[in-house]
Write a structure and sequence with these properties.
This protein is of the alpha/beta class. It contains seven helices and five strands; from the N terminus they run αβαβαβαβαβαα. Bound molecules: 5-O-phosphono-beta-D-ribofuranose. Keywords: ATP-binding, Decarboxylase, Lyase, Nucleotide-binding, Purine biosynthesis.
Length: 182
């Protein structure tokens, strides 16, 4: 799995072996390598904020035991949030949330036949007691930003970064407003 992900990791952070880097605070997992094009956008955001994270393939259906091991060890390994992307009958975020006390953010990945509505409904309709914070279809950017906000609540330097990110975004919009007005 790590071998298949290596080119992606390298594109995100050339020359850095994630397994040797800082202890990951965010776990980003996905059901299949076919989810990577969607998920790597969020990974790029985590990288941009300098958040130590891990990226891997964990399938609820094809590697159920790996999923159990991943979810059960996540808190103990120091993760503070998990982002889980999946398509179709997207059980991964919900099943992981059922086995960890950590916050889990689900990314519904758009599949080929039902436009991602299948994934969205699978992830968002969690039964009472096991929450999964669900972002919009294919929106791994918001999943990463939400994970960062979760970290920011207890890490002041990350809070400051998030405030700066929001100010920058506002500034960019206001520049466009200024151009339209003139
Ligand atoms: C899900 O099935 C994955 O998350 C993926 O979105 C979907 C299709 O997987 P592949 O058949 O492309 O591996 O488990």
């Amino acid at each position: 799995v790590q071998q298949r992900l290596a080119p992606i990791l390298n594109a995100i952070e050339p020359g850095v072996d994630r397994s040797l880097s800082l202890r990951p605070l965010v776990g980003m997992i996905m059901g299949s390598d076919s989810d990577l094009p969607v998920m790597k956008v969020g990974a790029q955001i985590l990288k941009q904020f300098g958040i130590p994270f891990e990226l891997s393939i964990v399938s609820a259906h094809r590697t159920p035991l790996r999923m159990v091991e991943y979810a059960k060890s996540a808190a103990q390994r120091g993760l503070m949030a998990i982002i889980a992307g999946a398509g179709g009958a997207a059980h991964l975020p919900g099943m992981v949330a059922a086995m960890t006390p950590l916050p889990v953010i689900g990314v519904p990945v758009k599949g080929s036949s039902l436009d991602g509505v299948d994934s969205l409904h699978s992830i968002v309709q969690m039964p009472r007691g096991i929450p999964v914070a669900t972002v919009a279809i294919n929106n791994s950017t918001n999943a990463a930003l939400l994970a960062i906000r979760i970290l920011a609540a207890s890490i002041p330097s990350i809070m400051k970064q998030m405030e700066e990110y929001m100010e920058k975004m506002e500034g960019e919009v206001m520049t466009k407003v200024g151009k339209l007005d003139n």
